[in-house]
Amino acid sequence: MGVKLLLEKAHVEGIRTYEVYRREGGYRAVEKALKTMGPDAVVEEVKKSGLRGRGGAGFPAGMKWSFIAKPEGVPRHLVCNADESEPGTFKDRYLMEFLPHLLIEGLIVSSFALGSNATYIYIRGEYAWIPDILEQAIAEAKANGWLGKNILGTGFDLEIYVQRGAGAYICGEETALIESLEGKRGNPRIKPPFPAIKGVWERPTVVNNVETLAAVVPIINMGGDEYAKIGVGKSTGTKLISACGNINKPGVYEIDMTISVEEFIYSDEYCGGIANGKRLKACIPGGSSVPILPANLLLKTAKGETRYMNYESLSDGGFATGSMMGSGGFIVLDEDQSVVRNTYTLARFYRHESCGQCSPCREGTGWMEKLLKRLLEGKGKITDIDLLWDIQRKIEGNTICPLGDAAAWPIAAAIRHFRDEFEWYVTNPEESQRRNYGLAHYADPREVVA
Amino acid sequence: MSDQPQLFKVTIDNITIEVAPGTSILEAARKIGGDVAPPAMCFYSKLKGSGGKCRTCLVEVSKGSEKDPRPMPKLVASCRTTVMDGMEVKNITSERVVDARAGVVEFLLLNHPLDCPVCDQAGECHLQDLSYDHGKAGTRYEFQRRTFKKHDLGEYIQLHMTRCILCYRCVFTAEQLTDKRSHGVLDRGDHAEIATYIEKSLDNDFIGNVIDVCPVGALTDKTFRFKNRVWFLKPVDAHCSCSKCSGKVTLWYRGDEVFRVTARKDQWGEVEDWICNECRFEKKKTSDWTIEGPRVIDRASVISQGHYVGVQKPKETFEAVLDGRKPRLFMDIHSVSGVNRPDINLSLIEGPAHSDDFDRVTKKD
C-alpha cells in the first residue's frame, strides 16, 4: 500500500459531515496555521513541500503563491478551480463529493496564507449535485466558527462562495474562469497581466486546482519537509489519478509517484490489468490533452528505462517519445480500440469547446475534426495525414490560451505514433469500416492475461 | 533632463527605434512603418482592450530585453506585448513568423465565403489586403464553409455574419462609444457569431461606426449596399458643424453624387474621429458639407486606381513594339507561343477572338 494523504479517510462512514470529519482529526491544519504560524510561514511551508499544481501544468504552487501582488488597500482573492472538464479526469469530483471538508479546510489555510477574505469555488456546471454538498459543508464550518468573522479569535475573516459554471471546458483556463466568475463571457484573457497581478475584478488573484488546495492540509499537518520526502525528485507528495478506459478497476487512486506505470496498470491495488484479458495498446496518461503513447513507450522510455508515474518520468523524451502527467486522467486503450476514432472524438470535443476568440483555434479545430471524420469514414486521402500534421503545427503555440495546444497535441501524438493506422484507414476504406486495424505490434509484449 | 521620460530602445527587423515605455511592439513597428509593421485584423488603437485575437500580428522576440536577454519561447501578439528596453523583434525577417502568419491567413479564410465580387467591402477590405500580402494562392480546405443568415441590425446596418472574422472590434466600439451595448458574441468556437440575440435593431447615435471598424464586409452600410464599388468613387475630405460629433468626414463621390459618408481613416485603416449616424447616413448632399479637398489614399490601394496624378504615357506603344500590329488581345504580345502563332494576325479578326477564328485562319492557310 502506498502512502495516502488525501483519501486516507475517504471511506470513513459519514466523513462528509462535520462531526465525523472533526472527530477524525479535521481542521487541525487550520488551528495550526492560524494560531501558531503566520501567512508567510504557511507559504514557506508550501514552498518547502515542493507541491506542484495538480490542475495539469504542474507549476510549483508555493512559487505561484509568492508571485501574488500585495498592493496596499486592494483585496486579494483565492479562487478554487473546480471546473474539472478534461475528458478522463474526475479526481476533483471524487474529492469534493466525498471529502468536502478537506477542501474547505485547505481553502481556509490557503486563504489565510494569501490574505484572501473572499474565496470562490468555481465549479463545473455539469457537477450539478456537488455545489449542494459544498454549501452544506461551508454552512457546517461556519456554524462551528471556522468561517466568518474573526476565525479562532485571530482577526482573520473569510467567506467562501460557490459559483456554478455553465458547462464550458474553456472556463477551466484560469483567466477564462475569472471572466466567467465576474459574470462575463468565458473568454481567456490575453496575458500579461497575469492573475497574480490583475485577476478577479482587477485584484491580485491566485487560481488553484481543488487537489492542490486539498493537499495544503497534509502539508501543514506534517510539515513541508516531511511532505517533500514522499515521492521522488520534483514530484513530491501524492497524486490522485483517475483511471478509466479498458481496465478492470476504473476509479480514483492516490499514488505516491514512485510506482511504475506498469505496476499502476497491472497491479490489483490499482487498475487491475486490462479488461477482458485483452492487451494494452495505448494510453493517454494525463487527461485528453496530453500526447497519447503506444504501449512500448508507455511502459519503458525511449532509453529503455522503466517509466514511473511522476511528472519527470512521464515527460521523459519530450513530446517525441514522452507525454505529460497533466491532470491525472489516465485513459487506457486496449488492442480493440481505434486510435483514429479516439483522436476524432477528442478533436470533436476541442472543436465544440473552443471559445472562438482567436483564429487558429477557432478555425483549426473545426478543420481538424472534419478531416478526421473523413478519415474515420474511410473517405480520407493519404495527404490528409500530412495536412493534419501541418494544421496542428500552425495552431500549437500561436493561440491565446493553452486550448489550442491541447487540441493540437493529441492529434500530433496520434499521427506520430500511429501513422500506419491512419494510412490503413485510407488504403483499406471498406475493411476499415468493418473492423479495427490489426494491432499486434502495438500491443504490450507481455502475455495475454488469462 | 529628469522630466524627460526615459525611452526604450527596440530593434525590429534590424531597425532600431526609441519609444516611450508602455508602447506595444506593433505601435513601435508602425512608427518605423512600411513592411516592418505587422498586419492587424483585430487590433484598433482607438479601442481599449482590442487586439490579441486574430494572431496575424505574431512576431518573434529574439531578445527579451537588455536585463533579461532570453528570447520568448512562443511567438507573441505584437499588439498586446509591450516593449522592453533593448528588446529585439523579428517580424518579416523570421521564417517562423512568415510561416505562422500564412497559417493564420489560411485559418481566417477557411470559412470566409470569398464573395468579394459582390461584397461592398471589396477594395477597402483588410482581409483582402492581408491575404494578398501574406497568404497563399490556394486553399487546402475541402469542406463546406460555415454560413449564417443575413441579419438586419435596424435601418442602416446590415450584418452578414458569414463574412465575419470575429475580431470583436464592433463589440468594443459599441461598448466604448454607445451607452448600452446591445450586440455581442453568441455561441462559441467556429460557430460563434456576432448577434443581437433577438433580431434587435441597433439604435444609437454612434453605432454607425461599427461599419468603419469592421475589417471585412460583415457590417455594411445599408444606404450604400450594392450602389457602387469603392474604387469608382473619389474620396473627398469635408466637414460640417455637427453638435454630436467632430463632423470631420470623407465623402465618396461619383460624379456630383455623394454615394456614402465615412469617417476619415488613417494609413492603418483606423478611424481618425468617430462620426455620428446623422452625418453618416443622412447628409448626402454636397450642400450639407464644406469641402476641404481630395483625400490622400495610399497609392497601393485599389481605391487610387484611375486617380493617379502626373502619370506619363510610355513612349513606346504596343504598335511600335509589335511591328505596327494593333493587338486586341494581350496574349498577342508574345509573338510565338502554343496558342498564339505568328501566322495568325489577331488584328485582322473582327470582334472578340474565338477558337473558330483560329481554325478558320488555319484552314485558309
UniProtKB/TrEMBL annotation, chain A:
Cofactors, names only: FMN; [4Fe-4S] cluster
Q: What class of enzyme is it?
A: translocase
Sorted UniProt keywords:
4Fe-4S, Flavoprotein, FMN, Iron, Iron-sulfur, Metal-binding, NAD, Quinone, Translocase
Q: Does the keyword 4Fe-4S apply?
A: yes
Q: Name one GO molecular function term.
A: metal ion binding
Catalysed reactions, as listed in the record: a quinone + NADH + 5 H(+)(in) = a quinol + NAD(+) + 4 H(+)(out)
Q: State the EC number(s).
A: 7.1.1.-
The NADH-ubiquinone oxidoreductase 51kDa subunit iron-sulphur binding domain, residue ranges: 340-385
Q: Name one Pfam family in it.
A: NADH_4Fe-4S
- Organism's domain of life? Bacteria
Q: Which family does it belong to?
A: Belongs to the complex I 51 kDa subunit family.
Q: What does this protein do?
A: NDH-1 shuttles electrons from NADH, via FMN and iron-sulfur (Fe-S) centers, to quinones in the respiratory chain.
Name used for this protein in its record: NADH-quinone oxidoreductase subunit F
Instruction: Provide the species name.
Output: Filimonas zeae
Name the gene behind this protein: nuoF
TrEMBL record, chain B:
Q: Which domain of life is it from?
A: Bacteria
Query: What name does UniProt use for this protein?
Result: NADH dehydrogenase subunit G
The keyword Iron-sulfur is annotated on this UniProt entry: yes
GO molecular function terms here? 2 iron, 2 sulfur cluster binding; 4 iron, 4 sulfur cluster binding; metal ion binding; oxidoreductase activity
Cellular location(s): Membrane
A cellular-component GO term for this protein: membrane
> Which species is listed as the source?
Filimonas zeae
Q: Does the keyword Metal-binding apply?
A: yes
For this UniProt record, the keywords arranged alphabetically read as follows: 2Fe-2S, 4Fe-4S, Iron, Iron-sulfur, Membrane, Metal-binding, NAD, Translocase
Family statement: Belongs to the complex I 75 kDa subunit family.
Domain (4Fe-4S His(Cys)3-ligated-type): residue spans on this chain: 96-135
InterPro entries from the UniProt entry: 2Fe-2S_ferredoxin-like_sf, 2Fe-2S_ferredoxin-type, NADH_UbQ_OxRdtase_ferredoxin, NADH_UbQ_OxRdtase_Gsu_4Fe4S-bd, Prok_molybdopt-oxidoreductase
State its cofactor.
[4Fe-4S] cluster; [2Fe-2S] cluster
* All residue ranges annotated as the 2Fe-2S ferredoxin-type domain in the record: 8-95
